[in-house]
Amino acid sequence: MARRKPNLDELLKKLGYSFEKPELLDEALTHVSAPQAGGQSYQRLEFLGDRVLGLAIAELLFRTFPGAPEGELSRRLAELVRRESCAEIATAWDVGPYLKLGAGEAHAGERRNQTILADVCEAIIGAVFIDGGYEAARDLVERAFQELVEAPRRPLRDPKSALQEWAQGRGLPPPTYSVVEQIGPDHAPKFRVVVKVKGAENEFGSGTSKRIAEQAAARSLLMKEGVWTEEDHGAA
Question: Which residues form the DRBM domain (predicted)?
């Protein structure tokens, strides 16, 4: 029995993007093993999408964590662009049924192959970049990766926990956090938070949520007290 062709509209809905040149999406979904590939596959778009993804994630991290040093931003970037993260995004988009594969690859279950899914994720980003420009590709990346930005799948060192442990080790009361300023519209607020620890100078942090601002404030105090260095800051 012939395999039922999936409805491409469902994928476009998940992507939140409509192509001016649908052939670009078709190329992004074509594995080199596909019988009609004719030497064409997603590989060139993957090459481009990898670079676009890195820039878009770097920009997103720069805006989301205004108090983070270069070391932490680099570690977060590496976490977000790794193969497993890209494969997770492709799985969320449910690209598997749309992949054009050779018969052998399809029977071998390659629609769930993490490497292929990661490659196709980057190829789709590259296709959107060619079709709609950087802003369209950046918006796609932000929609898809926002949850991973805010909640990494692998734990990074948590500044709030580290600060509480430091205070406890010195026999001090737990740190306290207070919002000192909130600006921006309700759908995109920005918070400024102060953290206080007995015997230490108050430190401040900013972010797009209270949690992020609190982490930034705790990070600043740890750095000020010399508990963390820039090399250690944000390490997993």
Answer: 158-227
pTM: 0.66
Catalytic option among 50, 105, 110, 131: 50
Q: Is 131 a catalytic residue?
A: no
Separation between Cα atoms, residue 109 and residue 79, nearest integer Å: 26
Q: Is residue 122 flagged as an active site residue?
A: yes
Q: What is the CATH number of the domain that holds 165?
A: 3.30.160.20
How far apart are alpha carbons 52 and 58 in whole angstroms? 10
Q: Which two tokens stand for residue 97?
A: 């049924």
| Closest to 120 measured CA to CA, from 206, 42, 21 | 42
Domain containing residue 86: CATH number: 1.10.1520.10
Per the CB < 8 A criterion, the answer to whether 129 and 49 are in contact is yes
Judgement on whether residues 218 and 105 belong to the same structural domain of the protein: no
How confident is the model over 144-171, as pLDDT tens digits? Answer: 999 899 877 765 667 888 898 889 888 9
User: How many domains does the chain contain in total?
Assistant: 2
